[in-house]
Amino acid sequence: xxxxxxxxxxxxxxxxxxxxxxxxxxKDKETGSKSVTEGNIPxxxxxxxxxxxxxKEPITIRIAQEVNASDVIPEGQTATDNQYTRYVKxxxxxxxxxxxxxASGNDFLQKVNMSxxxxxxxDILVVGEAQYRSIIKSGLAQDLTESxxxxxxxxxKSMIDKTxxxxxxxxxxDGKMMALPGVQVEMDGYNxxxxxxxxxxKLNLEAPKTVEDIYNVGKAFVxxxxxxxxxxxxxxxxxxxxxxxxxxxxxxxxxxxxxIFAAYKxxxxxxxxxxxxxxxxxxxxxxxxxxxxMLAKMYKDGILDQELGTxxxxxxxxxxxxxxxxxxxxxxxxGGIKDAVVNDPNASWVAYASPLTDEGTWEPRLGxxxxxxxxxxxxxxxxxxxxxxxxxxxxxxxxxxTTKLGVSYxxxxxxxxxxxxxxxxxxxxxxxxxxxxxxxxxxxxYKLLDADVASVKETKLEPYDDMRIEYWDPSNxxxxxxxxxxxGSGCVVDALKNLKVNKVYSxxxxxxxxxxxxxTNLKKMEDEIILKIILGTASIDEFDKFVTEWKKQGGDQITxxxxxxxx
Length: 567
Prior knowledge:
- By secondary structure, the protein is mainly alpha-helical.
- It contains 19 helices and 14 strands.
- Helix 11 runs parallel beside helix 18.
C-alpha cells in the first residue's frame, strides 16, 4: 500500500513538471519570440552569431512570391532553382520553397488576405501596410526584436536609423518589433512632370510652370499632331489603376494626376488638417473640386488621354511616342525611357518640378518612408533568417546581374535604402563631373555609388547639365540608372535649392477601426465619381452630393477616429 502511495505521489509530481514545461512552451509561442542565439544559427568561421553567417545545418524557408509581369526567369532556371536561390544556398545554407505565387497588385493582395483568414502564412512574407496590420491583429507574426538586435548588419541599421525613428515606429507593436521595415528613399515620393523636350524645341515652347501652361503645351502637342493622329497631350493611368495616390498606397507610381491636384493645394486620397487644424479627408475639399474642374476641361478639350478609364497600357502609349507629357517618379529611366528611345532615338524625355501653385511654390505629396513590411510566421523556428537574407541582399545586390533574373524572384526581397540615397548620389556624381574628384562616402550605405561614378562619363555626355537625349549614350548598361538619377533626381535636387518647396504628408498611413469595415465601399464610391467628373459623364455639381453621401456612409465617424489619433 505504501509503495502504491509513493508511486501515486511520484506520478503527480511528474504530471506537474510536464504541465509546467508545457505551459512554458505555450507562453513562448504566445509572446511570439524564439531564441536566436542557440541551436542551428548563422555563424562566422569562428562559430559566432554573425550578420553574414551561414547555418551549420541546412534550413528551408517557405515563401510566397509577388511576381511582376515584366520580370522573367532565364531558360533552365525556376522560381526555386535560379541564380539567386543558388546564391542563398551557397552563402547561407538556406533552401527556398515557394508555397504560392501571385501576380503583383490585386491578385497578390487577395492571396495574402486568404492566407491571413486561414491562419496559414508562409514562413516569411513581404506585405504592405494594410496586410501588416491585419496580420498583427490576427496574432500570426513573430517578435523580431532579438533577431534584429543580434543579426542586423550595421548598414541596415544605418538605413533604418536615417528615418529618425519613423521606420521602427511603423513596425513596433506593444514595444516589440513585429516586422523588418522596408525603407524607400524620400526621392520616391516626388511626382515629376516628364515632357518630350524635343517636341517643345520643335514648337519653340518653354517648359510649362503652371497648370495653365500644361494645358497650352498639351493643346499645342495635340493640334500639331506631334505623336501622330492620336497624340496625347497629357497621359493618364492604365484602366483600373489609381488617378492619384492615397494614404494606404503612398508609394509613387506612374501616370497619375497628383501634380495637377497639388498645384491647387488639393490632396485627394490623404488626410490633412483644415484651417481649424482638424482632420479632413483631402478628397472632400474645395481645392480638389477646383482641380477636378480643370481636369474635366482638359479631357473635354482633347488634351488628356481620350482613352482615360479604358486604356489597357498607358506605358505603351508613352514608349511608342504617342504621348507628350505624363507624371511619374524619378526612376523613369528604369520605367520605360530606354524603350522609348529604342523606338525613337530622338525621343528626349526631360523631368520638371511642375506645375507650381499660383504663389510659385512647389507642394508635392510625399508618402510614408516605410511601405513594405517583412513579417515572420510566429511558428517559424528561424526568425533571424529574414534579417540574414536582407543583410546579404543589401550588401551584394549591386554586384548581381538583375537583367537575367527578375528581382521579384528574389526570396523575401525587402527594399531597403538610405533615405537620402538619391539626393546624396546626385551631389557626388555632379561633383565628380565638375572636378574629376569625389568626396569620401560610405560605399556600403550608398551601395551603387562606386559603379555610378565609374560609368557616368560613358553614359552622360557633355554638356553634363543638358538632359536632352543627344547628350546621352542609351546603349550603355548604366543608362537607365544615370537617366533616373541625373535627370529625375537631379530635377528634385535643383527644385529643393531654387524653389520654395512645401512637402505634404498624410496625417496617417494606416486604417482606423471603422475603416476596416467601411473603407472598401467608400473608396469605390470615391473612385467612380472622380473618374466620371473628369470624363464629363457626371457634372461637377455631383461632387457636393458625393461629399454628403460619403460622410453619411461612415465618413464622419472615420474622420473622428483620425482626429483622435492626433491627440
